[in-house]
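Listing S7. Sequence submitted for prediction.
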Amino acid sequence: MAREYETVIGLEAHAHLKTRTKLFCACSAQPDPAPNSHVCPVCTGMPGVLPVMNKEAVRLAVRTALAMSCRVQTASVMARKNYFYPDLPKNYQISQYERPLATDGEVPFHVQGTRRTVRLVRIHMEEDAGRLLHEGGASLVDYNRCGVPLVEIVSQPDLRTPEEAAEYLKALRNILRYIGASEANMEEGNLRCDANISIRPAGDGALGTKVEIKNMNSFRHVQQALAFEAKRQAELTDRGGRVAQETRLWDPEALATRSMRSKEEAHDYRYFPDPDLLPLSVPQIWVDEIAREIPELPAQKIEKYTRDLGLPASDAQTLVDDLELVAFFEEALRSYPEARPLANWLTSELVGLLRQAGKTIAGGPVGPTALAGLLGEVDSGRISGKMGKELLAEMVSTGASAASIIEKKGLRQITDEGDLERVVDSLIAKFPNERKRVEAGEIKLMQFFVGQAMKETGGKANPPKLQAILRRKFRLS
């Protein structure tokens, strides 16, 4: 019988900081399709050059640390991490080791509506390497990315399932975007992730032998790779084998990990303080100033939406996961304070229509005030919910307001009780047999009168008021 195992996962996330220039030189940090167009002697490691620290990168790194409840160190040290790889022209990477920018901290996130928290070990700054392009049997090097500023966010091994790991990463992405520190887009490479995973017998407190997985560029790949690796380690252990400490690559086509190299230890990198850079000083007064600038964070919004606005956790998460969506929602909420129907119309109706039309929520044809206006028309009874959906589709295609479409097409519902009662009285007189059957207890036939009334009014009769009048006429209320 196979043993039951617990999976233990820790993640190391690398995020590009959203700066105009690189970490130690004035080269552009923006992506460029032309290889080696954003390079200089500093970022390519030419002899005799000296790096100069980018203050904006430090500010964004501190902002990241504070948003994740870390303790920012007023003095930290840049170190050289020595290793050879073709896309690392200096043969070392400027990073941090013994004295990082920030320590401790935590990141809250939700899995299936349950709140979880992952503790952080550290957040430190470093420069990115270049990248290799493999074409026609040759490997080419593009140094554009070399020297772009990164923060590395290292978690404790607090994650227990691949699903938790993916949701934690999404929470990281959201925080980075909310505070404006990074685009944090995994598919574009400005958020990357290495995972450390081990297994242990269920209930055992000791950690097993960890394996590092690299080459994951989407949340789905992270989840798939960790699920595969947990299963591989469990099957290997059940066969009497031993898990080797190594680095493995994720192959998304084979849906499997494969061995890359034996796992390095810190001493393999021969860290030492970079002699060209002074210790990094971050005065507490500056830290306090940055802290005051941090906006409301995703976890705070989720709590507010669920506790104060009564939204289901899934709806709150959907809104919070998209900066444009959450901004639209909060703006519309000022004009239409009913949060649940607003969230439902926004995420279920408007987003779907925009996607079909190839349009986006930001700057799209239907703004927050326009959607609020449409929902006001529905709530007032002047149009039905079905009409509202039809109107919304026309608003997306034309950019017109709900009020102008209603006016132009004469779609406003009949809500005056006197007008509706006259319609009902004429129908009861017109269909005496059906009236008798309803009065005899055939209640379902009342829908016949509803249908006739809608036909008589061209679909403009207000259904709830029509139903109420019919029930009163037939003494059913």
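Caption to Listing S7: primary sequence and predicted structure tokens for the chain studied. The first strand starts at residue 5 and ends at 16. The mean pLDDT is 90.
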